[in-house]
Amino acid sequence: MYQDEELVFSCPQVVADRPTHYCPGCHHGVAHRLVGELLEEMGLVEKTIMVTAIGCSVFLYNYLLVDAVEAPHGRAPAVATGVKRAKPDKFVFTYQGDGDLASIGMAEIMHCANRGERVSVVFVNNTVYGMTGGQMAPTTLIGQKTTTCPGGRCAEREGMPIKMAEIIASLGGSAYVARTALNNVKNINKTKKCLRKAFEVQTSGLGFGFVEVLSACPTNWKMSAIKANERIANEMIPYFPLGVFKDATADVTGEAAGKGEEGK
User: Fold this and answer.
1) Which string of DSSP letters, residue by residue, matches 42-101?
2) What is the pTM of this model?
3) Whole-angstrom Cα distance, residue 139 to residue 258?
4) Per residue in 161-207, pLDDT tens?
């Protein structure tokens, strides 16, 4: 009965064939697939070493079938630096959340980018600590309620949410910096294009690549998956504008980098 059916959808072989443990509506699985597709399409699977640290992002080890190193909380960029310098022929990337990268790991990511280390960073920003109980993160939006700011984040008390893509783009060693989202098919396709560019600046020896990916955490946001996608569009993107903030490949291709403009 299936003889006339045409297979139009398949899973990358580098992505493990196993049920997900992530919460319904979580976008980590989408990000995993995009990374897996690119590793296969770019012929990087056999030479890849990935580094993740503490947080929901750490479970990437269970889903991508490549060599990996686990770093202490926030220290993935420092560990990736050591791995890449020891094995310069390898493709090295980190996969991190906002509590991990922008809080305890702020020094590590800043100096890694400023030095222009030949690594790539996938930064999944869902504006909350996901694994440890829904606490306020450095990227938590003003008014957003968390377990440690139940009345909502207050600018006067906790400061403004940190815009990591803009900060990383301002550093001399960064070669490619973009911010994308995973809330709809259009943005998912853009995310893959930006991740490819971030990987290419490493494989071509241009330097440090960084892609911030806005994603949902329905459980800690206390929302349905549909409402969480709407929140990305209505609340997160207006504060964290999408676009390419820096692109060293423009010197080679002639393409200009945007300044956080939609569609770049």
Assistant:
1) TT-GGGEEEEE-SSGGGGGGGTB-SEEEE-STT-HHHHHHHHHHH-TTSEEEEEEEHHII
2) 0.92
3) 22
4) 999 999 999 999 999 999 999 999 999 999 999 999 999 999 999 99
Give the pLDDT score at 132: 80
Using an 8 Å Cβ cutoff, are 196 and 227 in contact? no
**Residue 170 gets which letter from DSSP?**
T
Closest CA to 214 of 62, 30, 51: 30
Asked if 150 contacts 182 with a C-beta cutoff of 8 angstroms, the reply is no
Question: CATH classification of 28-134+162-253 is 3.40.50.720, yes or no?
Answer: no
φ/ψ of 5, rounded to 5, equals -80, 145
Number of C-beta neighbours around residue 107 at 10 A: 12
List the one residue out of 143, 137, 44 whose CA is nearest residue 91: 44
3-state secondary structure of 244: strand
What is the C-alpha to C-alpha distance for residues 103 and 180, in angstroms, rounded to an integer? 20
Provide the CA 134 distance to its chain's centre, in angstroms. Answer: 19
Domain ranges of the chain: 28-134+162-253
Residues in CB range of 102: below 8 A, 6 or more apart:
109, 125, 137, 138, 139, 162, 164
What is the longest distance spanned by two Cα atoms in the chain?
A: 65
Lowest model confidence (mean pLDDT) among 51-65, 91-105, 246-260: 246-260
**Inter-residue contact 117 to 208 (CB < 8 Å):** yes
Residue 259: the pLDDT is: 57
φ, ψ dihedrals at 124, nearest 5°? -90, 110
Q: Which of 10-14, 24-28, 106-110 bottoms out in mean pLDDT, i.e. has the lowest?
A: 10-14
Reduced to 3 states (helix: H, G, I; strand: E, B; else coil), residue 187 is helix
Quick one: pLDDT at residue 75?
Answer: 96
